[in-house]
User: Which sequence fits this backbone?
């Protein structure tokens, strides 16, 4: 099968058909997780995505990793990384919002992993249902990764059966 080359102009035209979504990631001392989080963020299939990462004064190598990523990244996604002094999670989240340019916001913690179509699926649901907010819950139990609704999640949380959980929101 013959595949034709797609030039940068075509990519930009395709991206302009969809609103910009800002994927916001606050970090603080998460060197053991941030590489996978950044990897799954860069792998998102949604075409018009900016990834904004603000580090809150990490001392475990997270800032050095993010700086090297910023120096070396040459991919199709917009990438903004800010490295700062420790001010707390509230200030970090506020800075993320100030640095974002998207019509929609997608929050992702620095130790979370999402599948490559997560943002596409959330955007499609947002449009299909004509809603202002899409919230997805994913939990990880002792048996592995399980996707479930909020009620099932609350039952497991109350029974102390969860090791960790992710709540992602697009609005």
Assistant:
């Amino acid at each position: 099968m013959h595949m034709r080359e797609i030039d940068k102009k075509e990519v930009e035209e395709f991206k302009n058909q969809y609103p910009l979504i800002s994927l916001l990631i606050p970090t603080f001392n998460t060197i053991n997780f941030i590489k996978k989080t950044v990897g799954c963020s860069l792998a998102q299939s949604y075409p018009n995505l900016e990834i904004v990462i603000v580090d809150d004064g990490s001392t475990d190598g997270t800032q050095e990793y993010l700086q090297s990523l910023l120096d070396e990244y040459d991919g199709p996604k917009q990438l903004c990384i800010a490295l700062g002094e420790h001010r707390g999670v509230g200030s970090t989240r506020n800075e993320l919002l100030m640095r974002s340019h998207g019509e929609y916001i997608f929050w992702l913690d620095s130790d979370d992993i999402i599948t490559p179509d997560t943002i596409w699926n959330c955007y499609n649901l947002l449009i299909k249902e004509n809603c202002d907010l899409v919230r997805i819950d994913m939990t990880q139990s002792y048996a592995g990764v399980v996707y479930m609704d909020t009620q099932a999640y609350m039952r497991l949380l109350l029974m102390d059966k969860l090791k960790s959980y992710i709540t992602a929101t697009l609005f």
